[in-house]
Amino acid sequence: MSPAAPSQRDRSVPAKAGAGAGRTALAAALALALATASPQASPQTPATRDALLAQARQQHDAGHRLEALAACEDLLRRWPADADALRLRVRLLAELGAAVRALELARQLPTPLPAPELARLEADAAAHQARWAQAMPADTRHPYVEADRALASPDPAAVDDAIAAADRMIALARASRSREAAGAYQALRRRGGTLPAYADTPVADALLQQRQPEQAIPLYEAASRAQPGPYPEEEADPRIGLAHAYLEAGRHRDAQQWIDRVAVSEPAWLPAPGSVRPRANPHKTEAELAAALVRQQTWRYREAWRRLEALRAEGPANASIWNQLADTERARGWPRRAEDTLVGAAGLDPDDTSIRLGAIDTWRELGDFPRVEPALREVEAVVPRDPQVQLARQVWDRQRGWQFDLEHDRGRGGSPNFGDADHETQATLQSPLLGERWRIYGITRLAAANLPEGHTQRERLGLGLRGYARGFEAYVQALPAVGNQTRRTALEAGLRWLPDDYWTYTLDWSNTGDADVPLRAHYYDITAHSLNVSAQWRASERSAIKLSANADRYSDGNRRYGWEAAWTQRAYTAAWFTVDGGLQAGATRNSRSDVPYYSPSCARWIAATGRLENMLYERYERSWSHQLDLSFGSYDECRYGSGWMASAHYGQRWAPHAGLAFGWGIGWNSQPYDGKRDNRVMLDLTLHWGE
């Protein structure tokens, strides 16, 4: 005799594999069971009502539910009004997964079921209907209708029954009502109740959607211990959810160790009944995708990308692989490449919401703003409860809304350009997007320095217009002088063009040259027409080469021309930690050196650079990071020879929540000017509000 099966089956999943296949398989099994019950009694069939009922109960106790149901149906054909058989049939159907049919028959019983038992059936039926609606909705444009209808029955929470409460939590979670599911779970805990094992995973999913990973982790761990695998194809693997919960709780080492073990333990192929060819194991793919995601979320983009490229080569028809690969490509600075990958993903699964959200993120990054709002509204019309859809709406609303930036720099030293003490502040307030392409903004600049000649300041307040197109951004602004120490109205314009994923070109022009004219020159009412251009080739987040040049026409007749080249290369990457190295070289030439500000007839320099960056803390949009920049090299000035130059800067960035970030840093640099060494220390503060 087979061992007895548990009295409560896992109602968090359908009874059989597949969405449509599950219902078909269950119906076939029930039909087969009923067909075995002959309308005429055989010699082996018990002749009395009590014998038939005893046989049905024995089969049920042994875990043979189909045989028990057949015996029960045989009894009911002879004695249709038998109350015990009617109740047993309801119980058997519920345990076999036919919860809706069981509820229908329960409501037809001549003697109603006790309220707690009926509440269990109602919650069980709601959980099943919500699961089927999630897997295979009758109308893909309205996926919540069936699940909401299933949940429209009275809330059984008033009944002190853990099974009924758990089934309703499952139904709420499957209906994308994770907030209600999480609330019901907290209420159950306050009452001192516990979840049945089959509800651990779906309730943990709801808690994770509500950004409560610490609450979800114990449930995932319990589910993983209770059933370490293997898992049916249609059943959610709690080990995958546990890896996500570890990662979102900031336990990235636990997440990686755990998911790597899971990925290794899962076989790549499973036997296919009725076929000599095996089939791919979806849980193996899910584990590999989660392992790649852990690496991507902890800055190891290249490692994640290589894993996903290998997965795509093995399973080119898997839309989830294409979708996550596109997300990694976007993180590496390849939005157009990601867009092409998403086209392939959409061809494999045109109804996948995450693929559409990925396309929206790509358009936002490319500045292709007119496409964002219509696409996002279309997704919201179908799945407005999806947490990722809601997050995409919040991000887009911040990006297209008001933007505010504040930068303040303060320095001390003996520089001929900056004096003993100097400071500069710039504040910019940008309007929301107008017509999805334009922003109007106000800008103010305040700069001052204590020079040997005396105090000087440069103050401006003005307006600007910024325009956006796909891969292109341009601005024009006018900043009239404020106060009696500033001359002329500054007219400035510039552009930034990204023709592909690798090249970036910039151009900035000003008729006063505030960014290039030192305050010492400003003290003598000197301005300049300045032009700055740059071209950068960026292979990925790991390496880049940039060449920039400038031409300044000073109002005192001086002409300054210069260039600078910079190369950076990633040297080391670990979880939330990177080390970059590089080289920097440049030269400048001035037509006049007999001017009151630093203006060497010629100078050149070369330096080695390095940067260390580390994430100290991250939880969703809240983060705290710091970085250290170092450089050391040689500065050679005509007529004065060469000398060493060095700089160091340490800074931190704190984002308390989405759309708000603070930064601060302290720096030091030393280099010779006209043969005299200058040492300077700086403090910088930044604030950003918006997106």
Summarize the structure.
This is Biofilm PGA synthesis protein PgaA. GO terms for molecular function: poly-beta-1,6-N-acetyl-D-glucosamine transmembrane transporter activity. This protein has 691 residues and is α+β, with helices and mostly antiparallel strands.
Indicate the topology.
Elements (H helix, E strand, L loop, with lengths): L18 H17 L13 H13 L3 H14 L4 H13 L3 H8 L8 H21 L9 H6 L11 H13 L3 H13 L9 H10 L3 H14 L11 H11 L3 H14 L3 E2 L8 E2 L1 H16 L3 H14 L4 H13 L3 H14 L4 H14 L5 H11 L4 H14 L2 E13 L3 E12 L7 E14 L2 E16 L2 E8 L10 E8 L5 E8 L8 H5 L4 E13 L2 E12 L4 E16 L2 E14 L11 E18 L2 E16 L3 E17 L2 E14 L2 E14 L2
Antiparallel strand pairs: 1-2, 3-4, 3-18, 4-5, 5-6, 6-7, 7-8, 8-9, 9-10, 10-11, 11-12, 12-13, 13-14, 14-15, 15-16, 16-17, 17-18
Comma- or semicolon-separated keywords:
disordered N terminus, single chain, 21 helices, two-stranded antiparallel sheet, Lipocalin, alpha+beta, 16-stranded antiparallel beta barrel, 691 residues
Textual characterization of the structure:
- The protein is α+β, with helices and mostly antiparallel strands.
- The chain has a domain at 470-689: Lipocalin, CATH 2.40.128.
- It is built from 21 helices and 18 strands.
- It has a 16-stranded antiparallel barrel with strand order 3-4-5-6-7-8-9-10-11-12-13-14-15-16-17-18.
- A hairpin with a 5-residue loop joins strand 8 (490-497) and strand 9 (503-510).
- Residues 1-43 have low confidence and may be disordered.
Strand order of the largest sheet: 3-4-5-6-7-8-9-10-11-12-13-14-15-16-17-18
Percent helix: 25-40%
Q: Termini separation (Å)?
A: 66 Å
Give the tally of β-strands. 18
Which CATH C-level class of the domain at 470-689 is it?
A: Mainly Beta
Task: Write down the overall mean pLDDT.
Answer: 87
Shape: elongated
* Computed structural class: alpha+beta
Strand residue content: 25-35%
Which blocks of ≥5 consecutive residues have pLDDT under 50? 1-43
What's the architecture of the domain at 470-689, going by CATH?
Answer: Beta Barrel
Number of helices: 21
Radius of gyration: 34 Å
CATH topology of the domain at 470-689: Lipocalin
Main sheet record: 16 strands, antiparallel, barrel
